[in-house]
Amino acid sequence: MKLSRLGEFGLIERIRRRAPGGRGVRIGIGDDAAWVSHGSGSSLITADLLIEGVHFDLKRTSLFALGYKSLAVNLSDIAAMGGTPAYAILSLGIPGNLDSKRIDEFYRGFNALAKQYDVALIGGDTNVAESIIISVCVIGHPPLRPVCRSGAKVGDDIYVTGTLGDSALGFKLLHKKVTSTNRHSIAQLLERHHKPTPRLAAGAVLARRHLATAMIDVSDGLLQDLGHICGASNTGAVIWNEQLPLSPAYRELAGKEGTVYALSGGEDYELLFCARPRHRKRIEKLKAFAQVKITRIGSCVSADRRITVLDSGGKPLALPIKGHDHFKK
Ligand SMILES: [Mg+2]
């Protein structure tokens, strides 16, 4: 079967079914990070691959931002398990004609974020390649019980951190002519696109207090990633369109496209999680510890109702929208 038909998630499922097992694998392929036990304890491990021309275009991003983002997306996966990142392994494919100063700039971006979260760069590899290829692996410490995607129950509330859609809308506006009046707002959106903030404090506090029943980071779009929670937890979900947290810059610039980017834009790197309704008050009070706002956007329903987005009148929106899949066109 062609990869374009199988899709990214079909491919991952095939790999998962045939993957050799091993001792100490508590959570393997299919969540935000793996969880493995070893001699003295256990670790969370995650990896990501970024390829020039597929994930980024050097005409539209700086090497600094690229370094920053290549680590941020991995830290976001550790956050989604409720863990604390500790070590990174960075491997690079680099075109031979690239100036070494530009690679220094890449490492400056990577190291800036690593220092902020006390992550040590402990190894990796470099090699010559036709375009830039970035492979990052992050190893972290798990909470007592890492939060996986499969723990949501019918009746759970659904929450998201921060705001949605900024990154995707910013990316879209990169290609458009802009007027000076909204240049400042566009810059804010682009900052979110180039330098996403991994929600480590929020993930850790939700896991430590056993408040999140299921969690994922929003990398491929809210609906797509919510679909992963629903699939793993065997629930459906209702999302209230009016409740989606949108930034002032998003509201100013989204125009008639409304919440399209918030629902399926992707690259938000916010945390999407589920929690029991009896914990509402405790979650409302978390803001100070989470270092980001948390918004209740829906609830889990029985699986056969799938994912429905309701408008302010309670009517389902027609949603042909899909999130990101690397192989499907
Ligand atoms: Mg993830």
In terms of topology, how is this protein built?
Elements: H1 3-18, E1 25-27, E2 34-38, E3 41-51, H2 63-80, E4 84-94, H3 100-116, E5 120-128, E6 133-141, E7 157-161, H4 166-174, H5 183-194, H6 200-208, E8 214-217, H7 222-233, E9 236-240, H8 248-253, H9 260-264, E10 271-275, H10 280-284, H11 287-290, E11 294-301, E12 307-310
Parallel strand pairs: 4-5, 9-12
Antiparallel strand pairs: 1-2, 2-3, 3-6, 4-6, 7-10, 7-11, 8-10, 9-11
Helix pairs in contact: 2-3, 2-6, 4-5
This protein binds magnesium ion.
CATH architecture designation of the largest domain: Alpha-Beta Complex
- Average pLDDT for all residues: 92
Percent range for β-strand residues: 15-25%
In total, how many beta strands? 12
Gross geometry:
globular
**CATH domain topology of the largest domain:** Phosphoribosyl-aminoimidazole Synthetase, Chain A, domain 2
Rg computed from alpha carbons, rounded to a whole number of angstroms: 20 Å
First and last CA, distance: 15 Å
Which ions, cofactors or small ligands are bound in this entry? magnesium ion
Query: Order of strands in the sheet with the most strands?
Result: 1-2-3-6-4-5
Structural class: alpha+beta
Count the DSSP helices: 11
Q: Assign a percent range to the helix content.
A: 25-40%
Helix-strand string: HEEEHEHEEEHHHEHEHHEHHEE
Characterize the structure shown.
There is one protein chain. With 329 residues, the protein is of the alpha+beta class. It folds into 2 domains: 3-141, PurM-like, N-terminal domain (60s Ribosomal Protein L30, Chain: A, 2-Layer Sandwich), CATH 3.30.1330; 157-310, PurM-like C-terminal domain (Phosphoribosyl-aminoimidazole Synthetase, Chain A, domain 2). It contains 11 helices and 12 strands. It has helices at 3-18, 63-80, 100-116, 166-174, 183-194, 200-208, 222-233, 248-253, 260-264, 280-284, 287-290, and strands at 25-27, 34-38, 41-51, 84-94, 120-128, 133-141, 157-161, 214-217, 236-240, 271-275, 294-301, 307-310. The strands form 2 sheets. The protein has a 6-stranded mixed beta sheet, covered by helices on one side. It has a 6-stranded mixed beta sheet with strand order 8-10-7-11-9-12, sandwiched between helices. A hairpin with a 6-residue loop joins strand 1 (25-27) and strand 2. Helix 2 (63-80) packs parallel to helix 6 (200-208) and helix 4 (166-174) packs across helix 5 (183-194). The longest helix has 18 residues, at 63-80. Magnesium ion is lined by residues 32, 77, 80, 216-217, 219.
